[in-house]
């Protein structure tokens, strides 16, 4: 029996012994944020189930780099569905504003944080002491560069580095999240434009687990991360959302 078949049999025995099916743990409170969280986590679950079904144990587990492609792809689908079926102008405005803020925090802010991690590690490589003032100085400079904001006007804002758990528990996670977010938008764009095999290629990514380097996996799914076009998918999406928001605000 091939390794994949053995894994399937072991999982089947395990779940039968527990008398339960796979499930998602959520703190769902019926807010819009919780609905998007459900879609996000369902993307991870689908990814895991498809990877387990199509990969042997050794390559079933996948990296963060591709994990967030699956989850954020679901968010794009849900957003477009909700905007299309919004019952009131106010609902549509709320959805569009939420999506715009989401891109600013998910892509731009995460990229800012990734640059912070890079510069903080440069201090280590150069033998420069790591102090609170040194780390805050990096943040002050980056917020000015990215947003033109002087965060010293907010009493504790220069210490934002101290309360981002990913910096301490999952180093360089923010870089991977911003990158995979770009890839998921490019893949979703391909699907929306009905490009040949776009959906098949995306499902192929979910089925591939961790059987290759993540950049190669994303490329085979339709998002070449060595090309500017993939990252421009985020910019294009943001422009489209802003245009739609302006149009909705001007409508009666």
Structure description:
The protein has 252 residues and is mostly helical. Helices cover 72% and strands 0% of the residues. The chain is globular. The N and C termini lie far apart (65 Å).
- The helix fraction, in percent, is over 70%
Number of strands: 0
Q: Which ranges are low-confidence, i.e. pLDDT below 50, for 5 or more consecutive residues?
A: none
Q: Determine the mean pLDDT.
A: 90
Q: How many helices?
A: 11
Main sheet, how many strands, which sense, barrel?
none
- Give me the strand/helix succession: HHHHHHHHHHH
The name CATH uses for the topology is Neurolysin, domain 3
The Rg value, from CA coordinates, equals 21 Å
End-to-end Cα distance = 65 Å
Number of domains: 1
Assigned CATH class = Mainly Alpha
Write a compact overview of the structure shown.
With 252 residues, the protein is mainly alpha-helical.
Write the layout of secondary structure elements.
Layout: H1 3-18, H2 32-54, H3 57-60, H4 64-84, H5 89-125, H6 132-147, H7 165-169, H8 173-192, H9 198-207, H10 214-220, H11 228-250
Supply the key terms:
252 residues; mainly alpha; Neurolysin, domain 3; globular
């Amino acid at each position: 029996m091939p390794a994949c078949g053995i894994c399937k049999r072991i999982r089947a025995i395990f779940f039968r012994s527990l008398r339960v099916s796979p499930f998602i743990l959520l703190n769902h409170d019926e807010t819009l944020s919780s609905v998007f969280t459900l879609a996000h986590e369902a993307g991870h679950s689908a990814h895991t189930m498809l990877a387990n079904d199509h990969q042997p144990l050794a390559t079933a587990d996948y990296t963060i780099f591709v994990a967030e492609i699956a989850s954020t792809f679901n968010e794009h689908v849900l957003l477009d569905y909700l905007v299309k079926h919004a019952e009131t102008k106010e609902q549509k405005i709320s959805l569009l504003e939420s999506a715009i803020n989401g891109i600013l925090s998910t892509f731009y802010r995460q990229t800012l944080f990734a640059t912070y991690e890079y510069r903080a590690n440069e201090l280590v490589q150069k033998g420069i002491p790591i102090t609170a003032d040194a780390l805050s100085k990096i943040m002050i400079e980056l917020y000015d560069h990215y947003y033109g904001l002087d965060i010293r006007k907010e009493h504790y804002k220069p210490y934002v580095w101290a309360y981002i758990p990913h910096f301490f528990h999952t180093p360089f996670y923010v870089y991977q999240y911003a990158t995979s977010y770009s890839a998921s938008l490019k893949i979703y764009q391909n699907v929306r434009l009905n490009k040949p095999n776009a959906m098949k290629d995306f499902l192929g990514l979910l089925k591939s687990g961790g059987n290759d380097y993540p950049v190669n996996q994303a490329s085979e799914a339709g998002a070449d991360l060595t090309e500017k076009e993939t990252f421009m998918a985020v910019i294009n999406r943001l422009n489209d959302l802003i245009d739609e928001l302006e149009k909705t605000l001007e409508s009666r």
